[in-house]
Design a protein that fits this description.
By secondary structure, the chain is of the alpha+beta class. The chain has twelve helices and 14 strands.
Length: 350
């Protein structure tokens, strides 16, 4: 048996922490002296104590630690991986906001930053197999949006979601207020979709403030950025296969043929969407698309098309044609926008 002091030194937990974990039934001592109340621990408890210490160091809440400690090693590993994936997503949002604050607070030192605007195009196509189109795509001077409806009234659902955001195209909004405004608009979109019985929709949208882009995303429609010839996905799929990839239980290659690859874990109204600010640069080219494109056209082909197309209109129609050439098994919708200076002289994204 080890005294509480010796046990604390061996597992690198303080005696104070050990007393707290005893009270919370997270790490009970092997023996408590009935007269002095002094705690003693068995050597076999060191492994659990060290696990608790490690989980605390990555910031895991005590209630979650209790659940992880009750699992076998493989299941515990999956839980830790899933927890850390969520932490990274939340950290990315805070990082983007911090980046915005740094830019905002140092903007007074900048001289005459260029006035930027979007050049844009959007189109939706039923594809080659589906009897009707349930997608909605929109592009305007400030707003890009794609929604993929499902259920018996999928088109009314996706249309209602996008229509509820269109007022943002006429709003003059600062980067500091954009996330709050977008969050309020999404609540309106959610209420509009709730009025469409028995159906739902994904929603991916970008809102331009004049200096930054705000992204709202839920479901498996996607947002991509083409910058300096590289293609970057800036949204995260809310699907079963993506969760399996995040947990290390499935590779991206295996996910492409998984029988449940279209199963959504989140859609508009089921939970809060992802909201984040995104740094924008002249020459950036953005793509929003439904999974009718991303599920059949490899990302390398998407990159080549975006990099070679002369403008957003050409990019949209070439991407849709490529999806249909690949079989067009689903509705396919695209919105493409270039970020250019007001005189249109931004470098082309090659």
């Amino acid at each position: 048996m080890l005294t509480i002091g010796a046990f604390a030194k061996a597992c690198r937990l303080s005696p104070k922490a050990l007393r707290l974990y005893d009270e919370l039934d997270l790490l009970r001592p092997a023996k408590v002296d009935p007269d002095t109340g002094y705690r003693y621990y068995a050597v076999e408890q060191l492994e659990r104590a060290r696990l608790v210490a490690w989980l605390r160091r990555i910031g895991m809440p005590l209630a979650r630690i209790r659940e992880v400690c009750a699992l076998d090693a493989p299941a515990a590993a999956r839980e830790v991986r899933a927890y850390w994936a969520r932490i990274e997503a939340e950290t990315a949002q805070r990082r983007d906001l911090a980046g915005f604050l740094v830019d905002h607070l140092t903007s007074v030192a900048r001289r005459d930053p260029p006035v930027l605007e979007l050049r844009y195009a959007a189109h939706s196509d039923p594809g080659r197999v589906r009897p009707a189109n349930q997608d909605t795509a929109y592009a305007g001077t400030r707003l890009l949006a794609v929604a993929d409806g499902y259920g018996p009234a999928g088109l009314p659902a996706s249309s209602a979601a996008v229509a509820a955001l269109k007022f943002l195209d006429a709003e003059d909004v600062s980067a500091g207020d954009v996330l709050n405004l977008l969050e309020e608009a999404v609540r309106g979109a959610t209420e509009a979709v709730e009025d469409v019985a028995g159906s739902g929709t994904t929603l991916t949208a970008l809102l331009w403030t004049g200096s930054r882009l705000a992204l709202v995303h839920i479901g498996d429609s996607r947002a991509y950025l083409l910058r300096e010839g590289g293609l970057f996905r800036i949204s995260h799929d809310h699907t079963l296969v993506q969760s399996l990839i995040d947990e290390g239980r499935l590779t991206p290659e295996e996910a492409r043929s998984h029988p449940q690859r279209a199963l959504l874990l989140k859609a508009l109204g089921t939970t809060a969407p992802d909201l984040r600010l995104h740094e924008a640069r002249p020459g950036d080219r953005y793509l929003l698309c439904s999974d009718g494109l991303s599920s059949v056209v490899p990302e390398d082909d998407i990159r080549r098309t975006l990099a070679s197309a002369a403008g957003p209109e050409a990019a949209v129609h070439t991407l849709i044609a490529t999806a249909n050439t690949a079989g067009g098994p689903d509705n396919v919708s695209c919105a493409v926008a270039d970020l250019v200076t007001a005189d249109g002289h931004a470098p082309h994204p090659t």
